[in-house]
Amino acid sequence: MDGFQRRKETKKENIRQAAFELFSTYGVQKVSIAEIAARAKVSQVTIYNYFGSKDELLRNVMSVLLEKRLREDTEAIESNIPFPEKIERFISEKTGELSALHSDFLKSVMSEDPAIRQMAEDFTKNKFIPLMLKLIEKGKDEGYIHHTISNEAILLYIHMFREGKHSGTFLDLEQNKQLLKELVTLFFYGILGKPFDRS
Fold this sequence. Notes:
Order of helices and strands: HHHHHHHHH
Keywords: DNA-binding
Strand content: under 5%
Pfam family, one: TetR_N
DNA-binding region: 32-51
Shape: elongated
Organism: Anaerosolibacter carboniphilus
Number of helices: 9
GO molecular function: DNA binding
Radius of gyration: 20 Å
Largest sheet: none
Number of strands: 0
């Protein structure tokens, strides 16, 4: 990549970052291209040249965020950390630098933009679920997950934990490490507090 292309990509990333910060703080409808340009320190013309419109910029921001989340989740799954710690990361949604804010923001824009909703659904079906199935298979291979439990049940179980985190039912898991440990224990052993023989 030559110097011109690097500068162009840096500008595009600055625009995406500025747009995300403003969109997630004030809502997409209340943010103008002029405000994004001012924060990114570029001209409005530059934004239109690179992205075409505010809607296309938003879709590009979401696409990049989803791909970044996928990379971070993949790194967590393929790392050498013990399987229970991987599950802890997925329950707390701390597989990388992307926080729950991104999940909340994605949900809000999905409800307003059918194209983003379709993008997120395709991403979940074709990329995220296969990655989670890879994690589940690792757990089964390492003896942490009983082979009689279906992948569908485990995916639903992980989803329930993550959704519960956003419901306001749980305290801030980052502030309450003991609660997170207890949730991981519940994840593996349920309320019995020990492995249950299903054979």
